[in-house]
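It is worth pausing here to work through a concrete case rather than discussing structure prediction in the abstract. The textbook approach is simple: state the sequence, then state the predicted structure, then interpret. We follow exactly that order.
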Amino acid sequence: MDGLPKRKSNRLPQFDYGTVGAYFITICSRDKAKVFGRVVGGGVLDAPRTLPSPHGKIVIAQIESMTNFYPGLQIEKFVLMPNHIHLIVAVTQSPTGASRTPPPTTVRANQSIPAFVSTLKRMTNRAADTQLWQRGYYDHIIRDQLDYDTIWRYIDENPAKWHLDRFYIPEGEKHP
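Step two, the predicted structure:
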């Protein structure tokens, strides 16, 4: 064990990811496999969008139910792509401002971004009966309204720009 390299955290050191604010999150599928669906559309009357696969439908359903587990978080925007998801998640209630009454057993006490991502991955893996996600995820603390608006547009436009996306893999090819 001593000879193994130490995995570096992507999180901002000393930052409390339970702090009220908005966060941009990207989570990739395991080996960047296109397991969540495919981008369709692109015509004048048919805007590009992701047609979800069965695994993609599981991810969407789980994202939409996450506020049942994390009432202090709000998913403000998300897009499912063939091999990743982007989300804007807002922490709307700081754990320090929470009631002294213990939460019901169905509610998570830790209303933080890492806890949210961990639960999302665990529950979708369980529902799909397979390992869907790569280890780790990308996060960005949204700093101001301009940053928020830029990320919102990026999420909106992601299916139309799929072929330019850094996670894009042409049909029939595997990611290096």
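Step three, interpretation. Residues 113-128 form the longest helix (16 residues). The chain has one domain: 25-95+105-164.
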